[in-house]
Write a structure and sequence with these properties.
Blueprint lengths: L4 H6 L7 E4 L3 E5 L7 E7 L14 H15 L7 E4 L15 E5 L9
Antiparallel strand pairs: 1-2, 2-3, 3-5, 4-5
The structure holds guanosine-5'-monophosphate and zinc ion.
Zinc ion binds next to helix 1.
Length: about 110
């Protein structure tokens, strides 16, 4: 996808603060962090929405990366939140599926 911002980050055409990368996934710090630690975990394959995931083991890989990154970044024990925005009501803005990994501070109990 030529005009996808996350594809450009994956191809290193746009710089980002990468915290994890393997053959399938990349994770980098959100440019507009909502919490002390705010990392986006992104499959390298261009998949627009979380609703298009499922038939392969990408979700499992993301799950494992989530724990690994939280451990490496020092917030596994204090806890974290994983958020996926899909569609209009959730205010999705980038249409290349990504998981927000948020932590490093006390968050509100309210999520809506
Ligand atoms: P969404 O609203 O689609 O769930 O989240 C998109 C996220 O991508 C936002 O939190 C936004 O700050 C982040 N973002 C958008 N463009 C860039 C960028 O060029 N670099 C980085 N690191 N994050 C971005
Ligand atoms: Zn893309």
């Amino acid at each position: 996808m030529e005009d996808c911002i996350f594809c450009k980050i994956i191809k290193k055409e746009i710089s980002s603060d990468i915290v994890f990368e393997d053959n399938n996934l990349i994770a980098f710090r959100d440019i507009n962090p909502q919490t002390e630690q705010h990392i986006l975990i992104v499959p390298k394959k261009h998949i627009a929405n979380v609703t298009d995931l499922g038939s392969d083991d990408t979700l499992n890989k993301i799950y494992n990366a989530t724990k690994q990154i939280a451990k490496e970044q020092g917030f596994l024990d204090s806890g974290y939140r994983v958020v996926v925005n899909y569609g209009r009501h959730a205010c999705q803005t980038v249409f290349h599926v990504h998981f927000h990994l948020m932590g490093g501070e006390q968050m509100s109990g309210r999520m809506g």
